[in-house]
Design brief:
By secondary structure, this protein is an all-alpha fold. The protein is built from 1 helix and no strands. The protein is rod-shaped and about 185 Å long.
C-alpha cells in the first residue's frame, strides 16, 4: 500500500509537471506562431519596400535620362542660338552697308542728274 500511495503521489507530481510542461509548450508554441507571423509580416513589408525601391529606381533613371536629354538639347539650342545671333549680326551689318551704298548711289544719281541738267542747259545754249 505504501507503494501505491508513493506511486499515486509520484504520478500526481509527474502528471502536474506534465500538465505544466504542456502548458509551457502551448505558450511557447503560441509565442512561436506569433513570432512567425511577425516574421511573415516583416518579410512581406520588405518585399513591398523592395518593389517600391525598384519602382523608384526605375523612375529615377527615367527622369535622369530625361534630364540628361534636356541638358543636351539645351546645349544644342544654345549653340544654334549663338550661330543665329552671329548671322543676325552679320545680316544687320550687311543691311547697314547696303543702306550706305544706296545713300551713296542716290547721291551719285543726284549729282549725275544735276550734271545732266547742266549739260543739257549748256547744250541748249550752244544749239540755240
Amino acid at each position: 500500500m505504501i507503494a501505491t500511495v508513493f506511486f499515486n503521489i509520484n504520478f500526481q507530481d509527474l502528471s502536474q509537471e506534465y500538465k505544466q510542461k504542456v502548458s509551457e509548450l502551448n505558450l511557447t508554441s503560441g509565442e512561436l506562431s506569433s513570432s512567425q507571423q511577425q516574421l511573415t509580416d516583416i518579410s512581406e513589408e520588405l518585399q513591398e519596400k523592395e518593389l517600391r525601391e525598384t519602382d523608384l529606381k526605375e523612375e529615377y533613371l527615367k527622369i535622369k535620362g530625361q534630364r540628361d536629354q534636356l541638358e543636351e538639347d539645351k546645349s544644342q539650342l544654345e549653340e544654334e542660338k549663338e550661330v543665329l545671333e552671329t548671322e543676325v549680326s552679320d545680316t544687320k551689318r550687311q543691311v547697314v552697308e547696303l543702306e550706305n551704298q544706296i545713300d551713296n548711289l542716290q547721291d551719285d544719281i543726284q549729282e549725275l542728274d544735276e550734271e545732266k541738267d547742266d549739260l543739257e542747259a549748256q547744250l541748249a545754249t550752244c544749239g540755240a
